[in-house]
Write a structure and sequence with these properties.
The protein is an all-alpha fold. The chain has helices spanning about 5-10, 15-35, 40-85, 90-115, 120-145, 170-200, 200-220, 230-235. The protein is globular, with a radius of gyration of 18 Å.
Length: about 240
């Protein structure tokens, strides 16, 4: 967490805020592309995200937030170029794996970097900015693909850094996002088959899962509103 003196010198909506918001806009862009992407290709992206977690977990602290973000941005360029020049499905797979790898590093690093370097009063505003950028890119790609703008698919990204100690913050973010991606992979692979077999009844499964989480969140998740990261660490 930046000191009050440092936070006055560096505007919270400056380069750090722009960098983190751009990271989330990449994520929204990828989400939008999935609307016209076969499920297997989408699942391959999730595999790349999952395998990016050990990198974020193991070298994130050694590289630091800034260098990790630069590494992920470089991988964005490589993965995008591979997709653009590909002439076969295997090349597209490789491009998506690299982009998934990049996305995991970004989404586990950028939120942590944002919360650690921003004044407490600005954190929620900056998180909101990241979500706006995510949804804008998601909507833009859907508008290009379908001629409409719809943001219902851009799920708000929940930030695990608030719930972890100072020493485990980056590792906790990496594990949390890795869990997200491996479950995404399973869902993408099984959903077409299940819908074909049991039709609309398959959505009841997710309804039950979501309902089961409500008491768990209410009784076991600590409230982080109006608390600094140091407060959460002490708590």
């Amino acid at each position: 967490m930046a000191s009050s003196k440092d936070s006055k010198k560096a505007p919270d909506f400056g380069l750090k805020g722009a960098a983190c918001a751009t990271d989330m806009s990449f994520f929204g862009y990828d989400q939008g592309l999935f609307s016209v992407t076969p499920s297997t290709v989408t699942a391959i992206y999730d595999v790349g995200c999952f395998f990016g977690a050990p990198v974020a977990f193991s070298i994130g602290k050694r590289l630091g937030r800034k260098k990790s973000t630069l590494l992920a941005t470089t991988l964005t360029t490589i993965g995008t170029l591979l997709k653009c020049v590909s002439y076969s499905l295997p090349q597209i797979f490789v491009g998506w794996v690299i982009l998934g790898f990049r996305n995991e590093i970004n989404t586990s690093t950028a939120p942590t970097w944002q919360t650690e370097t921003s004044a407490p009063k600005w954190i929620w505003r900056l998180v909101f900015l990241e979500m706006v950028m995510n949804i804008l890119d998601f909507s833009m790609v859907n508008w290009i693909n379908y001629g409409l703008s719809f943001a219902g698919g851009a799920t708000p990204w929940l930030y695990p850094p608030e719930l972890n100690s100072l020493q485990m913050r980056n590792k906790g973010a990496a594990v949390a996002t890795a869990t997200n991606w491996v479950t995404n992979f399973v869902i993408v692979e099984i959903t077409p088959i299940r819908i074909q077999n049991i039709c609309w009844k398959f959505w009841i499964v997710w309804t039950v899962f979501n309902a089961a989480f409500l008491p768990a969140i209410y009784f076991f998740y600590p409230e982080t509103a109006n608390r600094t990261l140091e407060d959460i660490d002490a708590y």
